[in-house]
Amino acid sequence: MNWNSAIRNFKNYQKLERGLAENSILAYERDLKKLQVWAEEKSIPPLKTTYDNLLNFIHEVCTEDMAARSQSRLISAIKTFYKFLVYEDLLQENPSKLLETPKLGRKLPDVLNEGEIEKTIAAIDLSAEGGERNRAIIETLYGCGLRVSELTHLRISDLFFDQELIRVIGKGNKERIVPINQMAIKRINIYKNEVRNFITIKKGNEDYLFLNRRGSKLSREFIFMLVKDLAEKAQLRKKISPHSFRHSFASHLVNNGADIRIVQELLGHASILTTEIYTHLDNQKLVDAIHKFHPRNAG
Fold first, then answer.
1. Which of 102, 163, 256, 287 is the most exposed place for a label (fewest CB within 10 A)?
2. For the whole model, what pTM was predicted?
3. In the chain, what are the domains?
4. What does the pLDDT look like over 214-231, one tens digit per residue?
C-alpha cells in the first residue's frame, strides 16, 4: 500500500464510517500530506513507518515558530491515521501511540458585548445590494449560535417559524433543533419575501436559504469577508470572525444565568467540557468583585 491509497482509504473511512464534516477531513488530509512528502523522500511506505521515523518527522517539521495548536493538530492527525491502519488490520502495532502532543492552554474566544453586536448590525447598509440578506445572516448567527457551515447549509425546509425553531445539521451530520428569536425570524422573512423571491435560483440551490446574486448558496469565505467588512465599518477593535457571534451567543446566555447543559445542547457540543469554557469568560467580574468588596484588597 502506498501513501496515496492509504490516505484515500483513511478519508473514506472518516467520511463514511465516522461521518466527519468535509472541512475536518480536509484538515486531516493536509497534515498527512506533509508526512507523505517527508516519508516518500526517504522511501518510507506507510506500513513500514516506525516510531523513530515519526519522531524525526515531527522534530523536523514542528519548528519553534510553529504554534503549539498546529503541532497538536498535526500529531493528532498522525495518531488517528495509524489507529485507522491498525483498525483495518493493516498493522499489528501502532507506531504513533507513544507520540505526545504539546500542552495547550485553554484559549478563551473573542466575544462581542451587546453594544458591539448592535454596532456591527448598524453597520449593515440595508439599501445596498445584499443588505437585507446580510442583516438576516448576522441575526441568525448571533440569535442561534450557528457555525458558519451550519448557516451556509441552512435550508428553507429547516425553518419552523410557527414553533420558533430551526433544524440544524452540525458536525458529523448530527441534527439538532435550535430556537430562533423573533428578530431573526423577522429579518429572514423580509429577506426571503422581498429579496430572495426575485432571484433567479440556480438548479440544485432552490432550498438553500441564503443565496448570492447568481442564485447559488453562499460560501464560507463570503461569510468571513462579510464579518471582516462589518467589523471595519463598525470600528471594532477586536479581531472577530463569524465564530465570534457563536461565542457571543453562548457567553451571553451563560452570563445571564442559562444552564450550561442547555447551552451545550443549543451549540451541538458532544462534550460538556467544550461548553464549560464559556463559564470562564467573565472572570473580570470576579476580579472587580474582589477589588470592590474584599477588606484585604485596599492598600
1. 256
2. 0.63
3. 3-87 (1.10.150.130), 114-284 (1.10.443.10)
4. 999 999 899 999 999 999
